[in-house]
Amino acid sequence: MNAKNTLKLACGALLVLACGYSWSQSGAASAASGGASASAAPAQSNRTLRRAVYAAFAKDKSIDAGDVGVSAKNGAVTLTGTVDRADQIDKAATLAKGVPGVVSVQNKLTVKRAFSQ
């Protein structure tokens, strides 16, 4: 009777180990084929691209990017918000296009209006 219980226990343990092994293998396969962990990479890349555009603005002293918003998705950058002068709109787009990884720029910037206007 004791040998029978030991055999059942050993078979159960092997079954659990086999299921755990196959589960870990299928998780690795789904990650390699574009699973959940692969989708985290573009989000990080988008964040990195946004930061690089902001850094390009910071290096150029002719742009006041305090009211400029930058969003990035798969290399497409969108600029929103306001700038002080009209020439800064084109300058911001040019700077954003010069950042490595940027494939397109959608410029939605506008010029700030004074309260009296």
Descriptive keywords:
117 residues; Histidine-containing Protein, Chain: A; three-stranded mixed beta sheet
Question: How would you characterize the largest beta sheet?
Answer: 3 strands, mixed
Terminal CA distance: 95 Å
Helical proportion, percent range: 55-70%
Structure annotation, total helices: 3
User: Into which percentage range does the β-strand content fall?
Assistant: 15-25%
Strand arrangement within the widest β-sheet reads 1-2-3
Biased composition (Low complexity): 26-45
Signal peptide: 1-24
Region (Disordered): 26-47
Protein name: Transport-associated domain-containing protein
Structure description:
The chain is an alpha+beta fold. The chain folds into two domains: 1-33; 40-117, Histidine-containing Protein, Chain: A. The chain is built from three helices and three strands, in the order H-H-E-E-H-E. It has helices at 2-32, 36-59, 87-97, and strands at 68-73, 76-83, 104-111. It has a three-stranded mixed beta sheet. The model is unreliable at 21-38 (pLDDT under 50).
Task: Provide a quick synopsis of the model.
Residues 26-45 have a biased composition (Low complexity). The protein has 117 residues and is α+β, with helices and mostly antiparallel strands.
List the helices and strands and how they pair.
Layout: H1 2-32, H2 36-59, E1 68-73, E2 76-83, H3 87-97, E3 104-111
Parallel strand pairs: 2-3
Antiparallel strand pairs: 1-2
